[in-house]
Write a structure and sequence with these properties.
By secondary structure, the chain is mostly helical. It has a domain of 141 residues: Four Helix Bundle (Hemerythrin (Met), subunit A). 67% of the residues lie in helices and 2% in strands. The protein has 7 helices and 2 strands, in the order ααβααβααα. A two-stranded antiparallel ribbon has the order 1-2.
Length: 221
């Protein structure tokens, strides 16, 4: 498990470093100008760079794995669920409409900002693969068991709006399917590794928050 975790970490670090670099270059060029008004597009680009950088840092400093899903399917699912929408962006053109792009930027910014908070809360237990490192049940994880995937879905929705076409809608749906499968893979290894996960799963919904009913006592992280 150590060898797999080490090489998996190195691969993710390399990919994330490339993505952070390509995301940061436009910002560096932009802020080298004499005047740089903080538009929503710039703020969204900045939040996306922070999101990628945070994933990189948490991957470097993550805790040792206590359990990892077996087989090739969980790994393919995790990679596809993470990067498919980025590939879809390169295959489609943005919609040439200012109002549509503004709506898309708002969704992208909201999804990215909330994702940053979720990854920050996960801390060193963050992992792209279906891996058990530490059970986190507080904060956003006391509302639903997979808040990060909900936030990422808002980001994907923004990308679909921005590059709206039949192809990107289809790829967005496929990514959501991969993300759901990724969540079930994670739940399987968490149940296997942490006996207390069963009680947590009974108390906290998977993806849709409970807006009605008596509040449950919060669990400790």
């Amino acid at each position: 498990m150590f060898t797999e975790d080490f090489f998996g970490r190195m691969s993710i670090v390399i990919v994330m470093t490339v993505l952070v670099t390509f995301s940061a270059i436009p910002l560096v060029l932009y802020f080298q100008r004499d005047s740089y008004p903080m538009t929503l597009a710039v703020i969204t680009q900045l939040s996306s760079t922070i999101f990628l950088l945070l994933q990189l840092l948490m991957t470097i400093s993550r805790l040792p794995a206590q359990g990892t899903a077996k087989g090739i399917e969980p790994r393919v699912t995790s990679v596809a669920g993470t990067f498919m929408i980025l590939v879809a962006m390169t295959l489609t053109r943005p919609v040439e409409n200012g109002s549509v792009q503004l709506l898309a930027l708002c969704a992208i910014f909201l999804g990215t900002s909330c994702s940053i908070f979720c990854i920050y809360w996960l801390g060193r237990s963050f992992s792209l693969m279906a891996t058990a490192r530490r059970l986190v049940t507080s904060g956003p994880y006391s509302i639903v068991r997979h808040p990060l995937y909900i936030c990422e879905a808002v980001f994907v929705l923004g990308m679909i709006i921005s590059h709206f076409s039949l192809l990107i809608v289809a790829l967005g749906v496929v990514q959501c399917i991969f993300q759901y499968r990724r969540a079930t893979n994670e739940e399987a290894i968490l149940r296997e590794t942490f006996p207390e996960y069963e009680e947590y799963a009974r108390r906290v919904p998977m993806l849709v928050p409970r807006f009605f009913g008596s509040p449950e006592p919060s669990a400790q992280q």
